Structure formats: C-alpha cells, structure tokens
Amino acid sequence: MTAIQTANQASIVEELAEVIVANKAYLSEIDGKIGDGDHGINMAKGFGRAAERIHGKEMTLDAALLVLSDVLMSEIGGSMGPLYGLMFEDMAGALAGRDTLDAAAFSAMLNAGLEGVRGVGSAEVGDKTLMDTLVPAVGAFDAAQDQGFAAALQAMVAAAEAGRDSTLDLVARIGRASRLGERSRGVLDAGATSCCLILTTLAGSIQRRMA
Amino acid sequence: MQRFINNPDDLVDETVAGFVKAHRDLVHLDPANPRVVVSNAAPQPGRVGIVTGGGSGHEPAFIGYAGRNMVDAVAVGELFSSPTAKSFADAIRAADGGAGVAVLYGNYAGDNMNVKMAARMVAKDGIEVATVVANDDVCSAPAAERAKRRGVAGEIFMWKIGGAKAAQGAPLSEVQAAAQKAIDACRSVGVGLGPCTLPGVGHPNFQIEPGTMEVGIGHHGEPGTRVEALKTASEVADDMLRIVMEDHALPPGSEVAVLVSGLGATPVNELYVLYDRIEAGLTAKGMTVHKALVGNYFTSLEMVGATLTVMALDGELKALLDLETASPAL
Predict the structure, then answer these.
(1) Do β-strands B288-295 and B255-262 pair in parallel, antiparallel, or remain unpaired?
(2) B253: how many CB neighbours lie within 10 A of its CB?
(3) In 3D, which of B88, B151, B91 has the Cα closest to residue B114?
(4) pLDDT recorded at residue B263
(5) In the list A194, B106, B152, B165, which could disulfide-bond B178, CB 3.0-4.6 Å?
C-alpha cells in the first residue's frame, strides 16, 4: 500500500503519546544537563492527557492531532507547548478534508508543521534546537518522495536521527541552554530528541498500517 | 529528597489553592482559569492593568506580587515552565480596566512565545497590550548582547514601578516606559551553593561540588557561567557587588535600591550577612541606599544561594518605589 485512510486513526496519536510517556525520564535527564530538566515531565503530561481524551474515540488523524495541539497550547505552556502545539495544529490543518494520507499529503503535513514552528520560534538549523531534527527530516522526506511513501518515511527517519545526533556537538544559540555557551556542547538537545521521537514514531505507525 | 509533596503533578495546583486561601484579603483565583491569580483591587476602570507570569517554584514570585498598586493578575505556569498562552491571555482579560494592559515579564523563550500568542488572542477582544521584557541578569550574556539576558529578581522592581505608575493613572505608553526605565536601571547576579530538584524528576538537575560555588547561576538551576572555590560571605558579597557595579557604571553619589533574595534554602540570617557587606561596599563607592529588601523574594525551589539586584534611582523611580502597596510578598 502507498497510503492509509485518515478516518479512525486516533490510535496513531495514542501511539505517539505512549512513546513520549515512556521516554519521560530520558528526556528530562538530557534536558537537566543543560536546561532545567522538565522537558520529559511536561511532554509526558501533555501527550498523556491528550491520549486520555482521544482514547477509544472514532476520530480522524487530523482531529486527534488537534486535541493534542489544544492540550499542549492551553494546558502545558513552557516553550514546547506553543512550538509543538502550533506544529500539530498546522499539521492537522494540512490534513483537513483529506480522506487518505499518502506521500503528498504527508509532505504537506510536514511542511505545514515546520511553518507552524517557524511562525512562533526564531531558531534555525545549527542553533541546537528541535529545528536541527525537523528541517533535515522534512527535506529528506520531500527529496525521497518519488521513491514511494515507505521509502520516503525511511529517509525521513534517518535524517531525523542524524539531525538529533548533530546537536551533540553543537553549542546552543537559543533557548535556556544558550546562556551556557561552550558548556552546552556534548549533550543532545532535548527538543531535537523529542522531535526525533515524534517523527520516527509517526513513521512507524504509518508504515505498520500500510504493511 | 525530603519534601512536603502529595502527587508531584498536583503541586502547582495545591500551591495556588493554599496561596489564595492564605491571602484572601488581597487575591483570588480567576473564576475562568485556575492558573490565574487576580488582585482583589483589579480590574480598575480607566487604569492600565499590570500582568506578569512565569513558571512556579519561585514563590513568593510570581503570585505573591499580585495586589494593590502592584500586579493586577498573574499567569501561573508549571514548575520552572512558562504559563500557557491561554493563561497569559486570561490574566490580561482579568487585569483589563479599559485602558490597556502592560505585561511585564522575564526574558525566557517560553514566556516570550506565550505572551506573544496571548497578545494576539486578546487583540480580538480589543485589549491593547504593551510588553516589557526583564533582562537584568548580568552573567547570562555580555553587555553588548543585553537583549539576550535573563530576567531575574529585578522583575520585582519592574512590577513595583509599573504598578505604581498605573496606580497614578498614567496611560499605557507611560506605564510601559516607567517599567522599562526600572528594569534598565537594574542589574542582578546570582550565586549558587547547592542545586535544586524538580519533584517530578526526583534528583538534582545539576551538581555543585562541595566546597565550590557557581557564579552567575540562573533562576531555574541553569548552571552558572563559572565555578569557583567557595569563599567567605564577605568575599562572595564583594564579588557579587563587583559584577553588578562593573556592568552598571554609576557615578558616586547615586541613590540605589538593593534587593538581596535567597534562592530557597539559604537561611535568611546569611542574607543579612551578605547585605551588611554589600551596603558597606556601596557606601564606600559613595552610593546611598534608599531602600533595601532582604529575604526570600524570588526563589528557585530549594536551591542554596542568593541573588543581588541593584537598581539606580532618580526622582521619578524613587517616588514610584515609595508609593504604598499591599501584596502578599511586598
């Protein structure tokens, strides 16, 4: 298969929440090395609450993403609340009215999500933020689109992981860790790591449904 | 970790619940949003509203500064995490007396984003918003990049001045200008002797080795910009004053307001030990202390350490600083 239905896919967001909740301690640990150690807690709280609200409901993927977005923006706050909240809101917007999620729809969704983050944040690639994962991942997906949806998802996952790992050797230029200068080097960025989890989990969920 | 905690997830809600009960003569919860604390004096028709907000764990900041002639409404975030845009927006609505609202907050990525989004939300309600972003923490960026500096305890002076200006009936642009002038006149530095622990994490998010101290530490346990051997109180006080005054460049004869705040777990008596030396140092430089605040005014959970804030005063700031106020923390 080269596409999935968007109807009745709340479970994709539940699977996303499951992974974030499972990585709560890990995300807080890496955040704690150069930030304040709350990334995992707040992410798990937001994703966990959204999962509770959509559990067992018949919802399209975009409707479920909107629930997640709403929880992040109206109940979680921090900097990840608005960044991921807007990303998921704009991803949902790109899916609205589409019955199938194919490579073109997923590309539209990714690019809308990226624009959503850019609308509120000011980070660029190299600043040691989630953009180091998101920007190359979106680019890799688009570049591999003509090889088919599954191959493009693979390319996206590889680029997301490489992007996440690239933050290890970066010096933070934005956000709380930026005040540490050189001392921020040698630690993965928590946002880049959670963004990688989000993208790889999304890819896995879609691939399993296409298999 | 020995702490008075039920479920870590409920900590913020329980803090706010206890706070509004204990200070019901001054503040109440916004009926529309349990993460907004409103002064009983707000809103004041025809006067500019004052709003702030920030992560929890800094008590008595931020909620403790809601009150008469101070802050009208405070948005409450998770521990060390910015309030939501919705909470900032609801705080702005609660503070609005029809003359616009000044949002006076600290320079953090999350707060910047959420306040920006909140201002957009309330624009639909026709509420005019002006913002002032505090950036008084000297060690968080060099002087040439002052816009990148964090906001710390100097925010208290910013709220005091902004609140007083609004109380005098000044229009939004003048309230904003006065609050900006206040924070521009502030320089702060923090020294950490021991880390703090987010209850949900369960272990300190950084270490301070015994016998050392972190100079330039942030209000959220952001590690300091340098680690040194722990010195005597007088030597630490001299260091703090030097860092602040080198950035300030005030002429002799200046009048100042001084705030020495504990970070949560430092005994209050030690803050007075620091203050004794700090005032002596200021006097030696030919400065006069017009007002001193010493105590736990802006904390970071149970961090061991202290911050020093020095605000340069002129006639206007002095008069606004001296205007009577009533809030739980000041």
Answers:
(1) parallel
(2) 9
(3) B88
(4) 97
(5) B165
B101-106 and B49-56 as β-strands: parallel, antiparallel, unpaired?
parallel
The structural architecture, per CATH, of the domain B186-321 is 2-Layer Sandwich (3.30)
Helices (H), chain A: 10-22, 24-34, 39-54, 61-71, 80-95, 103-120, 131-144, 149-166, 190-210
Handedness of CA B33, B38, B42, B48 (dihedral sign): negative
| Tokens at B150, concatenated | 């964090």
Contact A38 B83 (CB under 8 A): no
Considering only the beta carbons, identify the residue of A32, A75, A77 that sits closest to B82.
Answer: A77
pLDDT the model gives residue B183: 98
Nearest to B91 by CA among B136, B29, B41: B29
- pLDDT at residue A176, rounded to an integer: 67
Interchain CB contact of B22 with A (< 8 Å):
no
A179 contact residues in B (CB cutoff 8 A): 140-141, 148, 150, 218, 222, 225
pLDDT at position B285 is: 95
pTM summary value: 0.89
Residue intervals of chain B classified under CATH 3.30.1180.20 are 186-321
ipTM: 0.75
Q: For residues A46 and A115, what is the distance between their CA atoms, to the nearest angstrom?
A: 22
Tens digits of residue pLDDT in B239-254:
999 999 999 989 999 9
Low-confidence spans in chain A with pLDDT less than 70: 176, 178-179
Distances in Å between the alpha carbon of A117 and those of A153, A170, B21? Answer: 21, 20, 39
B9-184: in CATH 3.30.1360.40: no
B18 Cβ contact partners less than 8 Å away, ≥ 6 residues apart: none
Domains located in chain A, CATH noted: 3-210 (1.25.40.340)
B223 contact residues in A (CB cutoff 8 A): 34, 180, 183
The CA distance from B16 to the nearest CA of chain A, in Å, is: 16
Active site residues of B: 58, 220
The pLDDT tens digits of the residues spanning B227-239 come to 999 999 999 999 9
Sign of the Cα torsion A49, A51, A54, A60 reads: positive
Confidence of residue B193 (pLDDT cuts 50, 70, 90): very high
